[in-house]
């Protein structure tokens, strides 16, 4: 059985859990991360030298980096609805996944660490304000995309891009700050809330 190492509150772990839910993949999860077993332990570092969660162990195969794990699970499944097999459709899904990991994540990091995590290293009000502004601007890009598709990130069909971005939008909505009114994003979240995987691993009160 697939083993997932990482605490359930982690956004990146929840990407993997939601993907497993969509693909009906059974798994066993172990708590690793802040408040649980330390990823700095030698046994964990042997699996992931970055000391970050999640990590999966699938038989004798070990993989880290949440988006790579989600892609692997899709590629290893008979189901093709999350990651299309045709090159162009798949590239669009992966484009938005990569955007989430690079552009969007970098936008919110300072504000989230200061406002939600209470990090002493992230309390500069000017930097928090700049991070919030950048965060809103990036969610505005998603707003325009969703207004165009009228449904999900890449079109009419739910995909792996919606797993990673749905959790990101959930974080944006739960962070204590003022937000612009993005009606397409709010309608999108209502659609995601119809999925049991999101209700379990996304809309669970964790930003």
Automatic annotation (TrEMBL):
Provide the protein name.
Glutathione S-transferase
Domain named GST C-terminal: which ranges?
86-207
Domain named GST N-terminal: which ranges?
A: 1-81
Domain of life, per lineage: Bacteria
Q: Which GO terms describe its molecular function?
A: glutathione transferase activity
Q: Which InterPro entries match?
A: Glutathione-S-Trfase_C-like, Glutathione-S-Trfase_C_sf, Glutathione_S-Trfase, Glutathione_S-Trfase_N, Thioredoxin-like_sf
Q: Which Pfam families match?
A: GST_C_2, GST_N_2
As given in the record, the signal peptide range reads: none
Residue ranges annotated as coiled coil are none
The protein's UniProt keywords, in alphabetical order, are:
Transferase
What's the family? Answer: Belongs to the GST superfamily.
Instruction: Tell me the CDD domains matching this sequence.
Output: GST_C_2 (cd03180), GST_N_2 (cd03047)
Q: Name the Enzyme Commission number(s) assigned to this protein.
A: 2.5.1.18
């Amino acid at each position: 059985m697939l083993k997932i190492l990482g605490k359930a509150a982690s956004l990146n772990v929840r990407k993997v859990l939601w993907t497993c839910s969509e693909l009906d993949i059974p798994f066993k999860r172990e708590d690793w991360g802040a408040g649980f077993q330390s990823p700095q332990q030698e046994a964990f570092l042997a699996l992931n030298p970055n000391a970050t969660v999640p990590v999966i162990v699938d038989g004798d195969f070990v993989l880290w980096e949440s988006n790579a794990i989600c892609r692997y699970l899709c590629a290893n499944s008979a189901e093709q609805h999350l990651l299309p097999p045709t090159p162009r459709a798949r590239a669009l899904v992966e484009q938005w996944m990569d955007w989430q990991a690079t552009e969007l994540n970098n936008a919110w990091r300072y504000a989230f660490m200061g406002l939600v995590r209470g990090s002493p290293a992230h309390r500069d009000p000017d930097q928090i304000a700049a991070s919030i502004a950048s965060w809103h601007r990036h969610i505005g890009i998603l707003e325009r995309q969703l207004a165009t598709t009228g449904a999900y990130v890449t079109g009419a069909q739910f995909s792996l891009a919606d797993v990673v971005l749905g959790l990101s939008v959930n974080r944006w909505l739960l962070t204590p700050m003022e937000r612009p009114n993005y009606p397409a994003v709010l309608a999108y979240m209502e659609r995601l809330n119809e999925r049991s995987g999101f209700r379990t691993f996304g809309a669970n009160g964790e930003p």
